[in-house]
Amino acid sequence: MKNVFGMKLTFIFFSLLALQQITAEGNLNPFKTDVPPVIDGNLNDQLWKNALSVSGFKTFTPDFGKDGTERTIAYTAYDSENLYFAFRCFDKEPGKIKSSVSSRDNILPDDWVCINLDSFNDQQSLYAFYVNPLGIQMDSRYAAGTEDFSADFVWYSGGQKLSDGYSVEISIPLKSIRYSERNPVTMSIFFERYISRFSEHDSYPELDPAKGFAFLTQMAPLVYYDLKHYTLFELLPAFTYNQKYNLNAGRLERNVDKGEISLTTKYGITSDLILNGTYNPDFSQIEADAGQVDVNLRYQLYFPEKRPFFLEGNEIYNIAATKSSEIDPLISLVHTRTIINPLTGIKLSGKVNSNNTIAFMFAMDRLPSDMTALSGDYSYVPILRYKRSFSDDSYIGGVFTDREIKNSYDRVIGIDSKLRLTDASTLEWNAFYSSSNSNLLQEIQGGHALGLVYNYDSRNLYYNFTGKEISENFNAETGYLTRTGIFTLTGLVRPKIYPNSSFIQRIDLETFSAQTKDKPSSMWETYNYVSAQAFFLGSWNFKLKYSYSTEVFKSEKFKTGGFQISFGSQFTKQLAVFLSYKRINAIYYSQNPYQGKSNRISTIMVYNLSENFESYSTFTFSDFYRDSDSQLIYEYPIFRERLTYQLNKYLFFRGIVEYNKYKRQLLTDFLVSFTYVPGTVIHLGYGALYQKTEWNEFPNRYVDSNNFLETQRGFFFKMSYLWRN
Questions:
Q1: Residue 289: predicted pLDDT
Q2: 323 to each of 166, 202, 482, 644, how far by Cα in Å?
Q3: Of the candidates 193, 224, 255, which is a domain's last residue?
């Protein structure tokens, strides 16, 4: 009886303590500690008995406002140098929890928890720190409606699977994030849990169905007292050694054999304004970009940024009213992969006060040897960005980009803005002017781009209307722009239906229409589709789409419509499959284009042989048949297999084999990688390229063969160490 009475008193005491930590204004006041927890996933530290805790998580996917299928408790505390978080995730079927020992940023299919942290409480951007049940990390930056998973931060996590669920601990050093100079510091948070077998997202605080997925405006404020404000200083020296071999007259000959030292520095002018510098940076990627179909293209392929120096503050360069629809040609005004081989660079990014954000970048980019005679040795790339934030997630910003080469330049200047009109709706717009000349065209050309986007998003309905105009002479060499000389109006409406059924969780119906004027020809083209997508049996989804569309190319109008079927499911803890098939009318892009038909297939299969061993298989296929005579013009299949064995959270072994039947080539790529924290790494890699060819002495040229010949070989070693004051 005494034990029961004592337990009741303990429960009442901690309930009152928790209530004291949640103020009348809804602010959360985390517990401040002098004794940090051991980050091992075990919640037996005294800290977690005193820490602020929240529960009552509600779903927001596949539907809003329902109690989470499984119970979740989140904890938060801090000291003057670190923020601490923990989760206790209960599960009535612990054997179905999906988890893996994998490399960073590879846990999205797993069960996981996430700390979404707006470190300035300004509703402009957030850090996201994901952890799976075994303590493996994934992180990102979110701003202007875009989440960038290429960001990597130094933080610590631990996880443990339990008989009734799992638990996770997280420590985020203040040196790893940017935050206000004030005291107290107010941040805001959105606790999130994902249960993979139900495709269910739960959160605290609960998202309002009338506001949809406007995360930044629905977070819970956190108030921290007496945080330490750093004068941050980091050094990141790196050593890289490369050997490369190319085929010459039937024999492999070494054409690269060199070691290089690079240095990147980071200095915190304040805790929210950071200066970065780099000299001779190593931007080698430890994994080659996956092969894509690169034949019959109207515009260049897009590859995401992965290089560390460019990722600091990269989210500040997100521009309103870009990527606004399926056919928007202005994907990005600042795409740093256009800076190919920089010698040196400098960046300044962060806040100058609570409402003003700036970002400045300058890089010297080495030009290829075949360009130096005409254009000099380097191009110079300065980029300036400014944002002024208002209430909610509204802002107005300005941007200037430039690429200067000897006797030529390309400059863009403009403004953009996002305005929250209601809880569920926003208005975005942009206006840019470009001025450019080139060595070939000595005259100055000017162009403009204008964009206007209205979005509405709630539980039951999403719709979007856009207007775009891009003049023929608009140019943005630092960005990613697929088409100029267009005026387009688009509209999309997506009602969401929630059947009262245990089989189907949600049905999305969608209709889209775009009317585009091709300015060079003064002809109009259209793109229209209807689609239905069902989410059922927890993790299964199926989509059917039919389109009627035309496209103008070389002043001719062609048919481009057709149908698409896609399907995806996490069948079991071990197996996930995703499949897409398109059958469409298509254009053969050439000086003399013609009409045809195309089949396009994309498949992904992920199979976990164990928690440490993953097989990631992909198949991509495209073909083209000419309408006039049904002749097959090309057939382009790519098979790719990636096997990864993760010994522990730091060390993995990976092998990749990719076969491109169209190019008659086979790529192999092997890597041993050790990452203690981002920046402190050792990589050892070997790769080779084989082609179906052979050297014919007479007449001294390569000819097709049925056997593979090794045509390229490469070996690299990289070692770097992150030092912080």
A1: 65
A2: 38, 28, 11, 33
A3: 224
pLDDT score of 624 more than 90: yes
CA separation, residue 166 to residues 52, 90, 97, 111, 136 (Å): 19, 7, 9, 10, 13
Query: How far from 673 is each of 73, 286, 645, 676, CA to CA, in Å?
Result: 35, 9, 11, 10
Instruction: Indicate the DSSP class of residue 563.
Output: E
Classify residue 30 as left (phi > 0), alpha (psi -120 to 50) or beta: beta
Q: Provide the 3-class DSSP secondary structure of residue 540.
A: strand
* Long-range CB contacts (within 8 A, 24+) of 624-629: 624/296, 624/586, 624/588, 624/596, 624/597, 624/598, 625/596, 625/597, 625/598, 626/588, 626/594, 626/595, 626/596, 627/594, 627/595, 627/596, 627/597, 628/594, 628/595
Domain count, the chain: 2
Which of 224, 219, 234 has the alpha carbon at shortest distance from 153? 234
Q: Map 14-37 to HEC letters.
A: HHHHHHHCECCCCCECCEECCCCC
* Segments forming the whole domain that contains residue 595: 498-644
In this model, does residue 27 exceed pLDDT 90? no
The answer to which of 20-24, 77-81, 158-162, 251-255 has the lowest mean pLDDT is: 20-24
pTM of the model: 0.88
Q: State residue 374's pLDDT score.
A: 75
Query: So what's the pLDDT on residue 286?
Result: 61
DSSP, collapsed to helix, strand or coil, labels residue 9 as: helix
- Final residue before a domain boundary, out of 187, 205, 224: 224
- What element of type H or E holds 492? strand 486-497
The reply to whether 519 falls in a domain is yes
Domain assignment present for 259: no
Give the Cα separation of 207 and 217 in Å (integer). Answer: 10
Q: How many other CB atoms are found less than 10 A from the CB of residue 135?
A: 22
Positive or negative torsion for Cα 200, 205, 208, 212: negative
> How wide is the angle at C-alpha 151 spanned by C-alphas 148 and 156, nearest 5°?
125
Q: Establish if 664 belongs to a structural domain.
A: no
Q: What is the CATH number of the domain that holds 63?
A: 2.60.40.1190
Say if 50 falls within a structural domain: yes
Structure tokens at 88: 């206790």
Residue 45 CB neighbours (<10 A):
20
623 φ, ψ (degrees, to nearest 5) = -140, 175
For residues 75 and 30, give the distance between their C-alpha atoms in angstroms, rounded to a whole number: 9
For residue 527, give both structure tokens: 């793109």
Residues 517, 521: Cα–Cα separation, whole Å = 8
